């Protein structure tokens, strides 16, 4: 398993070793010892999985306060553009984002620390799986509008399908003002 730093502190791209033969393949999606060796000491409490058709954008979501979550995200099948936005108050990369294509063939993953909004655009019908370090807590949920002009994320989807909730999140500037500059 290869754990790579990204330009944003505490965000990591993870590439597992895939063992293929005539029967199929095998890979490890998580190994506590390797994560700890890389300084990623996370206690996971919940696993989630979703299915989405091509053209959907989900996000950008976060949970704040004591319910803030670390996420380890991957695509079981299909392909998505996965995005995390730094919302940490004292971070030198506040308001910056990191995007990576998660691909069911590569089985690559993204480690998203607390203090980030997270979302993804579905490029190919996809089964999306993720571990969380805290349970879902509706009252702590928040988000940033997917098409925020300041972030200017190229999602790679021409006419996205969105939930009503994802159409109504505030922009980054409103979040910055209302939250006292971040999470």
Automatic annotation (TrEMBL):
Gene3D superfamilies: Jelly Rolls
CDD domains: cupin_RmlC
Enzyme Commission identifier(s): 5.1.3.13
InterPro entries according to UniProt: RmlC-like (IPR000888), RmlC-like_jellyroll (IPR014710), RmlC_Cupin_sf (IPR011051)
Catalytic activity: dTDP-4-dehydro-6-deoxy-alpha-D-glucose = dTDP-4-dehydro-beta-L-rhamnose
Pfam family, one: dTDP_sugar_isom
Keyword Isomerase part of the UniProt annotation: yes
Keyword Isomerase part of the UniProt annotation: yes
UniProt keyword list: Isomerase
This protein's pathway: Carbohydrate biosynthesis; dTDP-L-rhamnose biosynthesis
Any one GO molecular function term: dTDP-4-dehydrorhamnose 3,5-epimerase activity
Subunit relationships: Homodimer.
PANTHER family found in the cross-reference section: DTDP-6-DEOXY-D-GLUCOSE-3,5 EPIMERASE (PTHR21047), THYMIDINE DIPHOSPHO-4-KETO-RHAMNOSE 3,5-EPIMERASE (PTHR21047:SF2)
Protein task: Catalyzes the epimerization of the C3' and C5'positions of dTDP-6-deoxy-D-xylo-4-hexulose, forming dTDP-6-deoxy-L-lyxo-4-hexulose.
Protein name per UniProt: dTDP-4-dehydrorhamnose 3,5-epimerase
Source organism (scientific name): Negadavirga shengliensis
Gene for this chain: rfbC
């Amino acid at each position: 398993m290869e754990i790579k730093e990204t330009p944003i502190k505490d965000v990591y791209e993870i590439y597992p070793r895939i063992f293929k033969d005539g029967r199929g393949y095998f890979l490890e999606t998580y190994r506590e010892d390797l994560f700890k060796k890389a300084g990623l000491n996370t206690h996971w409490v919940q696993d989630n999985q979703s299915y989405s058709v091509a053209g959907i954008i989900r996000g950008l979501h976060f949970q704040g306060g004591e319910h803030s979550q670390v996420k380890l995200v991957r695509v079981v099948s299909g392909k998505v553009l996965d995005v995390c936005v730094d919302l940490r108050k004292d971070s030198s990369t506040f308001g910056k984002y990191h995007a990576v294509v998660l691909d069911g063939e590569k089985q690559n993953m993204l480690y998203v620390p607390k203090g980030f909004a997270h979302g993804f655009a579905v490029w190919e019908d996809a089964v999306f799986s993720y571990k969380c370090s805290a349970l879902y807590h509706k009252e702590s949920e928040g988000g940033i509008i997917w098409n925020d002009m300041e972030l200017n994320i190229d999602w790679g989807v021409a006419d996205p399908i969105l939930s009503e909730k994802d159409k109504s999140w505030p922009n980054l500037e409103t979040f910055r003002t209302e939250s006292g500059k971040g999470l």
